[in-house]
Amino acid sequence: MKRHRPLVAALLALLALFAFVPSANAQPTAELTNIRVGAHPGYDRIVFDLTALPATQNVKYVAQLVRDPSGMPVSLPGNAFVQVTMTGAAAHDADGNLTYTGPQMFTTPQLANVRAVALIGDFEGVVTVGLGLRHRAPVHMFTLTGPNRLVVDVNH
């Protein structure tokens, strides 16, 4: 048993070395660079410009928007609220510099249903955005590439 200890130690050292090698398949963090809105016949569009596509994205109606990570309520104008969540995303780069330098909250008087947009979270690889709406309506979300964008359409 003692004669195998150097071999076992060498194998464990080799395994430890490979445990810290980054995977070639690791997805880059999607850095948020801009939030744009546009009015269209029948729907309002919110576009999130990103450096890559987020690992996952989700959109849902919520009774109350909350700031991530504090959990504090967020007050936006509107009668219905939508939360957009992007994982594998950030509004800052690896050095902590902001990549999204726009307003944290802005109103959208040019839109028929969306009244306001707010960046309510940028924590541990999750970006959260809240939308204040005049009323509930169908919401559609999809991604586009060239350049990378997450698009949320809210029906009138």
Question: What topology emerges from the helices and strands here?
Answer:
Layout: H1 5-19, E1 30-40, E2 43-50, E3 56-62, E4 80-87, E5 89-90, E6 105-107, E7 114-123, E8 126-133, E9 139-144, E10 149-155
Q: Count the DSSP helices.
A: 1
How many beta-strand elements? 10
Order of helices and strands: HEEEEEEEEEE
Level-1 CATH class name: Mainly Beta
Structural class: mainly beta
Describe the 3D structure:
By secondary structure, this protein is mainly β. It has one domain (26-155): Immunoglobulin-like, CATH 2.60.40. It has one helix and ten strands; from the N terminus they run H-E-E-E-E-E-E-E-E-E-E. The strands form two sheets. The chain has a five-stranded mixed β-sheet with strand order 5-1-2-10-9, with no helix packed on it. The longest helix has 15 residues, at 5-19. The radius of gyration is 21 Å and the shape is globular. It starts with a helix and ends with a strand. Mean pLDDT is 90; it is low at 11-24.
